[in-house]
Design goal:
Layout lengths: L11 E2 L9 E6 L2 E6 H13 L7 E11 L2 E11 L13 H13 L5 E9 L8 H8 L7 E7 L3 E8 L4 E10 H6 L9 E3 L2 E3 L3
The protein binds zinc ion.
Length: 201
């Protein structure tokens, strides 16, 4: 299993906003996370909908900040790990490590790794014990985990923070039709799903 080096910078001072247009707000008491709806939530939901038979996994990028109330984060992007195998245990391969390192450098030059995401194809709306172990590898209290749960006609994104897998609220709901009708395109007008790249209808 490839372990990508996590570079963590001390969170810079910046007062947290009450809301950011286009971002979903998750909270766990005094810790807040603003997650981009299109570039993160819709994107990973869409990837998950297109992979109903195997779990997807990847990394989250963004920035950590701090203010008088403590730390808060903004998540701006998601980098898919295309070479993993599902459905129960998701693993990151050497190939994925190289792709992610390049994506972080070339496509997200101002961000750092902020956590991971994966999907549940069986409708389980909470972390498994394996998921908690994976989350614990992210050592900072502000490191995030997003879980995309697929139901028969809807998708829910749950958020967790810190090595103890603290649950955050509120979850972000999607209708599966929304995910499939409004796929997130990258800057080339292409979508990328589970290692396959190509134009969509
Ligand atoms: Zn899981």
């Amino acid at each position: 299993m490839f372990e990508m080096k996590k570079i963590t910078n001390k969170p810079a001072y910046r007062p947290r906003p009450k809301q950011i247009v286009g971002y979903h707000w998750f909270s766990n008491g005094c810790f807040d996370a603003f997650v981009h709806k299109d570039n993160v939530l819709a994107k990973i939901s869409w990837w998950a909908c297109c992979s109903r038979n195997s779990e997807i996994v990847g990394r989250l990028v963004g920035r950590p900040y701090r203010d008088e109330h403590g730390e808060w984060v903004i998540l701006t992007g998601a980098i898919a790990a295309h070479f993993v195998g599902g459905p129960v245990n998701v693993k990151t391969t050497v190939e994925d490590g190289a792709v992610m390192a390049r994506a972080l450098e070339q496509e997200h030059p101002t961000e750092e790794l902020m956590g991971w995401y994966h999907s549940h194809t069986c409708g389980l709306d909470d972390y498994s014990s394996t998921d908690q172990i994976n989350q614990a590898e992210w050592s900072k209290p502000y490191h995030m985990g997003l879980l995309v749960t697929l139901h028969s006609d809807s998708v829910t994104v749950h958020a967790y923070c810190g090595p103890e897998s603290k649950r955050m609220h509120p979850s972000a709901p999607f209708q599966e039709a929304d995910c499939l009708l409004n796929p997130p395109f990258d800057r080339h007008g292409f979508v990328s799903v589970c290692g396959l790249q190509g134009p969509l209808v």
